[in-house]
């Protein structure tokens, strides 16, 4: 498969983030790095995502949501010609309590892609504490390939 | 525990308010809840489907309540989860049922299903573990 240029991947990633709706917008993600090795994304602290009264402990579910999103992004930037993509399954281990008001950093990559399926892995830590992972996840995605790429559909804002 | 007390507990959790769900039935071994569709639940920007992570979060929340409805400060501590996504979650209410498969002294195992039009048409199913100590 032909190499995908860094410029293309960055353009796709920014598009994904800008055109994202709903939860993606609410998570206010910042794309920090994009390459064929994977993607790194920052999620600023958000009190809505906490479970405690003091709002310092993140709910596991938001970490799961973040992994699911960033896996999608990793596939989107590294696999060309995807017209749609659906999460098949997802496994997440919560490695320690996510107690901090620091930004959350996610690293995710696609470790195997076939015509129909992509396999992903990723991990999450609080900014500045890379040695203390808070969650790790793996997922598989069903890919639909077609003439209308997801990128074009998003650009035009039409249904794929 | 009565439903009113459980839902008052749910309302104290910021992220549970973000999910916007209500517990509709429960006993010692299960909990059922209904989540209202919100714009911030959208995952697919083209079709307005639920974000997979929101579905998994709602399942985790329902499972935690089935295990520990009377939590004082924070809901039951999750250890890990696996989710199978079976159908897209479309705009509209989403229902979840969590069954406590086993509740020991330290660990609980919970299976959860979600659906929209009928229980037999599951949107997702999952297994969740919680640490009770």
3D structure, described in words:
The complex is a heterodimer of chains A (160) and B (133). Chain A is built from 4 helices and 6 strands; from the N terminus they run ααββαββββα. The two termini of chain A are 24 Å apart. Chain A has a 6-stranded antiparallel sheet. Chain A has a single domain (6-156), classed as Thiol Ester Dehydrase, Chain A (Roll), CATH 3.10.129. Chain A has helices spanning 6-19, 23-27, 60-78, 150-156, and strands at residues 30-35, 38-43, 82-94, 104-113, 117-126, 135-145. By secondary structure, chain B is α+β, with helices and mostly antiparallel strands. Chain B has a single domain (3-131), classed as Hotdog Thioesterase (Thiol Ester Dehydrase, Chain A). Helices cover 23% and strands 41% of the residues of chain B. In chain B, the strands form 2 sheets. Chain B has a 6-stranded antiparallel sheet with strand order 1-2-6-7-8-5. Chain B has a two-stranded antiparallel ribbon with strand order 3-4. Chain B starts with a helix and ends with a strand. Chains A and B meet through α2, α3, β3 and α4 of A and α2, α3 and β5 of B.
The CATH superfamily of chain B is known as Hotdog Thioesterase
Strand order of the largest sheet of chain A: 1-2-4-5-6-3
What is the subunit organization of this protein? Answer: heterodimer
**Total strand count of chain B, please?**
8
Cα-based radius of gyration of chain A, to the nearest Å:
16 Å
Catalogue the unreliable spans of chain B.
none
SS element count, helices of chain A: 4
The level of helicity of chain B is 10-25%
By CATH, the topology of chain A is Thiol Ester Dehydrase, Chain A
What is the helix/strand order of chain B?
HHEEEEHEEEE
CATH H-level superfamily title of chain A = Hotdog Thioesterase
Largest β-sheet summary of chain A? 6 strands, antiparallel
């Amino acid at each position: 498969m032909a190499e995908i240029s860094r410029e293309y991947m960055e353009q796709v990633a920014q598009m994904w983030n800008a055109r994202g709706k709903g939860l993606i917008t609410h998570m206010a993600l910042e794309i920090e790095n994009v390459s064929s090795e994977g993607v790194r994304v920052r999620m600023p602290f958000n009190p809505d995502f906490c479970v405690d009264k003091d709002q310092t402990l993140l709910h596991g579910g938001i970490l799961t949501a973040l992994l699911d999103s960033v896996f999608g992004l990793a596939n989107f930037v590294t696999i060309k010609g995807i017209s749609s993509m659906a999460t098949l399954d997802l496994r997440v281990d919560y490695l320690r309590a996510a107690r901090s008001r620091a930004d959350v950093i996610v690293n995710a990559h696609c470790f195997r892609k076939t015509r129909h399926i992509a396999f992903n892995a990723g991990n999450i830590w609080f900014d500045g504490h890379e040695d203390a992972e808070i969650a790790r996840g793996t997922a598989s995605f069903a890919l639909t390939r077609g003439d209308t790429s997801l990128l074009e559909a998003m650009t035009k804002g039409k249904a794929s | 525990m009565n439903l009113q007390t459980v839902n008052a507990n749910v309302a104290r959790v910021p992220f549970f308010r973000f999910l916007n769900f209500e517990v509709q039935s429960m006993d010692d071994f299960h909990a059922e809840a209904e989540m209202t569709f919100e714009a911030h639940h959208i995952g697919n920007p083209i079709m307005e489907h639920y974000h997979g992570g929101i579905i998994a979060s709602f399942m985790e929340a329902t499972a935690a309540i089935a295990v520990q409805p009377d939590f004082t400060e924070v809901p039951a501590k999750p250890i890990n989860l696996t989710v199978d996504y079976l159908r897209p979650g479309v705009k509209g209410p989403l229902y979840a049922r969590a069954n406590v498969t086993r509740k020991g002294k330290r660990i609980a195992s919970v299976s959860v299903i979600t659906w929209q039009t009928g229980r037999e048409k599951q949107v997702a199913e999952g297994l969740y573990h919680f640490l009770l100590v």
